[in-house]
Amino acid sequence: MTEHLTRTISPSGAWHAGAGYHRMILANPWYRGVATLQNAVSELTSDFWRGRRARTMHLPVTTGSISSPMGRGSDSTPVSVDLGGVRTYLADSMQFMLELGCRVSGTDCYYVMPSFRGEPSDPTHLSQFFHSEAEIRGGLTSVIEVVQDYLRFVTAGLLEAEADLVLSLGGRLDHLERLAGSPVFHQLTFDEAADLLGPGGVEDHGGWRTLPRRSERELISRVGEFVWITHWDHLAVPFYQAFADGHRKRALNADLLFGPGEVVGAGERHRTAVSLREALRLHEVPQSAYEWYADMRVTDPLLTSGFGMGIERYLMWVLDHSDIRDLQLLPREMGKAIVP
After folding, report:
1. Apex 208 CA angle, 204 and 210, nearest 5
2. Which residues contact 313 (CB under 8 A, 6 or more apart)?
3. Does the pLDDT value for residue 69 go beyond 90?
4. Which of 24, 185, 191, 195 would suit a FRET pair with 328, their CA atoms being 20 to 30 Å apart?
């Protein structure tokens, strides 16, 4: 077991700053360390997918088919912009394009790119963050296994290349060593998690349930360091997650909890246009912007599943840090003009 050391470099909370922010990040070595770790995660992500013969995709950041629209079960508020007089959206995810990419390339597909969410930032959430996302050919069980392999690979790579830096910024390595080794990944269905948490453990939205952050951390404490929560109420997740049963009450999805809470979200996609259109109806989402997405299932049927990992939230865990806003190199907040 690696000896625990005290962190020697701390952030200056530069995200609080207005004018002069650039001077703070140039003066404090914390931000140089953050930039180094961001680069390492990007390089290791490319190495992982290259080893699986997957392809990266160069995709736009604007879309007319947002993956988490306003509707029942949406987990984000879309960010709209005027693009030459046409209302469009900054992408919260380009997962739909990765699904298309699997069909175009005949391989699994991935990218690392920005994600835009229309909510304020807080200690565990950013309104603009970097997403490591991938889509693979196969079902939910397969993508869960890929996520676990990916996390072990990236974490082992950080230990090999940047252990001294992580010690200086975070003060410990033992949790990285456990993940890079052979950790136990526990699995509970959402119903099992709700029973374990008891009254008040889940938030009831009158037709679907969610887990507040405090309950995510409680599950980690009670079940184990790495916990998958699977088969959520379908109305609690975006419409594109496949139905898990004939009653269409549960979804074929899974969130991986560790560190600050949810770090990875994964799910299997609808196999047919009929199933997808039924999900759009249930979630009360207009179907017009998603006709192409439904037609893709008719034109080129393919079972795929995908996942997204927030890189800054992963780095929160790596550095055992309590505020995700310190993991931005250049902060961005909704409703705030920031230069640079």
Report:
1. 60
2. 124, 129, 259, 260, 262, 263, 324
3. no
4. 185
Could you state, in order of their start, the residue ranges of all structural domains in the chain? 19-327
Q: How confident is the model at residue 334 (pLDDT cuts 50, 70, 90)?
A: confident
- The helix/strand/coil state of 70 is coil
In DSSP notation, 97-163 reads HHHHHHHHHSS-EEEEEEEE-SS--BTTB-SEEEEEEEEEES-HHHHHHHHHHHHHHHHHHHHHHHH
pLDDT recorded at residue 1: 44
252 is written with which tokens? 């074929």
What CATH number does the domain located at 19-327 have?
3.30.930.10
pTM of the model: 0.94
Q: Are strands 185-189 and 226-230 parallel, antiparallel or unpaired?
A: parallel
Distances (CA, A) of 35 to 52, 230, 231, 233, 241: 26, 33, 36, 38, 34
Other Cβ atoms closer than 10 A to 72 = 17
pLDDT for res 14: 81
